[in-house]
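Re: the request from the purification team.
They wanted to know what the chain is likely to look like in 3D before they choose a buffer screen. I agreed to run a prediction and write the result into the notebook, where they can find it.
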Amino acid sequence: MKEISTSERMLNYIKRNPKSRVYSISDFSKFGTYASIRKALSRLEMEGRLIRVSRGFYKSSEFNKLINEETSSDPDQFARAYAEAYGWKIAPHKETALNMLGLSTQVPSVFQYISDGPYRTVSLSDGRKIEFRHRTIREISKLSYKEAALLEALKTLGKDRISPEVRSRILRRFSKKELEALKKRVQKSRKWVYEEICKLIEGSGNSVSHR
């Protein structure tokens, strides 16, 4: 019986995942030695099956026939893969958080993330930049990625810029159950942030008691 090669095993694994997923070399560690994985990645890239997103990071080739070009990598997918590879906790920051949650249509010139790792700027193969800003992030350490994004978005907007339209957009992305879970985890956050979460829960259809 023919032994399946490292590249074939890697390709089978890639096919089971979304095309937008970004992979680091360590994601393939179970399929062979470091040398064999590097060789397989080079082969798959040469065959056009993988696209190099940045040094040591790849995604599936995804050609868009409508615009007749390769689909660009998702900066957020890259940031999350990069952070996972280094064991960092991250959350979208400022305009990146607003854009991710549909609270701003402006695409950031630099995609920013707060991180418990060192300060670092990484360039993608298409020229876009990802910036990781070091911060002690105890406040979001127990939050999911989506919850942390909302917390950062609220702080970026500030208390006076959270309009009914902003709340309406948030409620399109967060269920009452998700907001109630978040409320329990942000009691030690800024008072106005906690109160805003309560207002969002009220806006979802049912009032809640304030602390």
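For the purification team: The longest strand covers residues 110-115.
Please add any questions underneath this entry.
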